[in-house]
Write a structure and sequence with these properties.
249 residues; alpha/beta; Rossmann fold; six-stranded mixed β-sheet; 24% helix; globular
Length: 249
């Protein structure tokens, strides 16, 4: 696990805490969104990736959330690093479909953590938040999920259970590794860190190595690696890991 240090809160942060949205023109109070039923939980046959079955999976999918000046540029840089990458709209149905089909998913958006109701923690999209609650019905999950969002790595651990929040829910659904923010981070700093992270990932580094070296190179703190961060990820580039290099998790 890569250590995280607190970063000062500014108008450029990509985070929301307890329903408060930071970024652009200040903050606004937003009530928690009600959980909605998601459609489409078909399971296709194919290779084993990240604990589930996948057929014709995209190598990488990237999403640029609303209200961030550098999210679009971050997505472009991420896609430049990987063969076969694709951008999908920042809409709940499109992102949920990508989570069912992709090997790697990168979300650049505002994050919100609800300490009292961790399954309502989520990522801000254009139509509605993508909540941890929504992930419970996924038939499979990507091998690697990158949450380039403030507070997206926060969790609440009950005395008799596993940590509740976005990373824990992804891992429970079969994701091997989650990279997520633990503190508020400036939008431009997230752009620099994630650009470097994906360059290193595409060169064959494991997620943990890529995050540690990107943090050292950029000086941007606040992100953490959860799960099997020591396993290489198939990125589609020559010399990168192959999906069959991994044991199913």
């Amino acid at each position: 696990m890569v250590g995280a240090a607190r970063v000062a809160r500014t108008s450029g942060e990509r985070g929301r805490r307890r329903g408060r949205l930071a970024g652009g023109g200040g903050t606004r109070q937003a009530p928690p969104a009600a959980p909605t039923e998601q459609a489409g939980t078909e399971q296709a046959g194919g290779e084993l990736v990240g604990g589930g079955q996948v057929s014709g999976a995209l190598r990488l999918v990237a999403v640029a959330g609303p209200g961030l000046r550098h999210a679009d540029a971050e997505v472009r840089r991420v896609l430049d690093c990987h063969a076969g990458g694709k951008e999908v709209p920042a809409e709940a149905d499109a992102v949920l479909a990508a989570l069912r089909d992709a090997d790697i998913v990168h979300l650049a958006a505002h994050g919100v953590f609800h300490a009292r109701s961790p399954l309502l923690s989520g990522i801000t999209l254009r139509d509605r938040p993508l909540m941890a609650y929504d992930l419970l019905a996924l038939p499979r999950a990507p091998r690697l999920v990158v949450l380039s969002a403030c507070d997206s790595g926060m969790a609440r651990t009950p005395c008799d259970g596993a940590p509740l929040g976005l990373p824990g829910t992804f891992l429970a659904r079969g994701t091997a590794c989650v990279v997520a923010g633990l503190v508020p981070v400036r939008d431009d700093e997230a752009l620099a860190l994630m650009s470097c992270f994906h360059e290193l990932l595409a060169e064959g580094c494991t997620p943990a190595q890529a995050l540690a070296w990107a943090t050292a190179k950029t000086g941007v703190l606040g992100f953490c690696c959860f799960g099997a961060g020591d396993q290489p990820v198939a990125t589609g580039r020559d010399g990168s890991a192959d999906q069959f290099d991994h044991e199913p998790t």
